[in-house]
Amino acid sequence: MRLLAAAVVAFALVHGAAAQEKVVLAIEGWDHSERDGVSYFRCASAICAKGSVVSYKRQTHRPSLTLADFERHHRGLADNNKKNPARIRDVRLERIEERTVEGVRVFSLRRAVDWADGTSTFSVDALLTGPTTSYTVISDSPRMEWTVNNFEGFLPRLVDIALLQRP
After folding, report:
1. Which residue, among 130, 129, 127, 128, has the nearest Cα to 164 in the 3D structure?
2. Which pTM was predicted?
3. pLDDT per residue over 22-39, tens digit each?
4. What is the rounded CA–CA span in Å between residue 135 and residue 131?
5. Domain boundaries defined on the chain
């Protein structure tokens, strides 16, 4: 996946006392949309896998969050989802890990969901914690290797966003 050199195309302040900055990426081959504060990218070309979606959202900055906290949160979500067998047959979490990329702490895990209709989806769920901001990132696709490739392709630009200094 090729990312545009000028990936950060907009950096605007929202007016008001609780002003929040908004950063929008432009990623070649992906269609962008926003809903409820979440930026979504849907595969729109041959350079990514059909059905792939990558999304990110700014979160409350919690630099003291641990990998154990991250895992506990996601295991709780998985356990709750398993309580709905009419919709979800199984949820599996794998490769729960922490790494640092250019000073940004990255917690990530791989999630596989088997739906009641017989289909499966594969996700990478991540939390990026920079010096003053945090973002959640979710990469989804019909195959785990595509999901991981998409996540790793977006990660450098998302690290850039997490490194932007915010008041």
Report:
1. 130
2. 0.80
3. 666 777 789 888 898 888
4. 12
5. 47-163
